[in-house]
Amino acid sequence: MKLIFEPSVYLIGYSVPDFQALSHWMFDNDIKNEGPIHKIADWASDDGDETVDPLPELAGRFCYRAFNKGRDNEDYLKNILESGHGSVLEHVQLTFIIQGVSRTLTHELVRHRIGVAISQESQRYVDAKDINVVLPPLLL
């Protein structure tokens, strides 16, 4: 048995845009590689800041056909969040492991999981001698 005293999160995977397909789509639809779309299309050839995912911005710009005009990336995504246009955020896929949290928390995550796929360690099939036990801060 292992005692866990604080939660931890590990990002183990994320969506990767296909910029070659994006380039073909832009060409086929006469979308010029200028303005805001230029930053999205060139994201891969820059150093590709891995903390930024261009897919939500592209999805939002697709909805309004605003590829070559409008806000820069940061302002655009802030506006998406402020306006509640959350469906474009669903184009981002992140896979992470959360450990060191209570079963109560994980059940709340499962309960409110719309748009989220959750795989959870089984309490029925995992050998109890190998189980991790979360010790809440209140008991420290």
Number of continuous helical runs: 5
Gyration radius from CA atoms, angstroms: 20 Å
Point out poorly predicted stretches.
Answer: none
| Shape estimate | elongated
Distance between the termini: 17 Å
Taking all residues together, what is the mean pLDDT? 80
Let me know the largest β-sheet.
Answer: 2 strands, parallel
SS elements, strand count: 4
Please name the defining characteristics of this protein.
single chain; 140 residues; alpha+beta; two-stranded antiparallel sheet; 5 helices; 4 strands
Q: Mind explaining what this structure looks like?
A:
A two-stranded parallel ribbon has the order 1-4. It has a two-stranded antiparallel ribbon with strand order 2-3. It has two domains: 2-11 and 94-139, no CATH class; 17-91, no CATH class. The longest helix is centred in the middle third of the chain and has 11 residues, at 73-83. The protein has helices at 19-28, 36-41, 55-64, 73-83, 103-111; strands at 2-4, 8-14, 94-99, 132-134. The chain has 140 residues and is of the alpha+beta class. The relative contact order is 0.20.
Topology:
Blueprint: E1 2-4, E2 8-14, H1 19-28, H2 36-41, H3 55-64, H4 73-83, E3 94-99, H5 103-111, E4 132-134
Parallel strand pairs: 1-4
Antiparallel strand pairs: 2-3
Short précis:
With 140 residues, the chain is of the alpha+beta class. It contains 5 helices and 4 strands, in the order E-E-H-H-H-H-E-H-E.
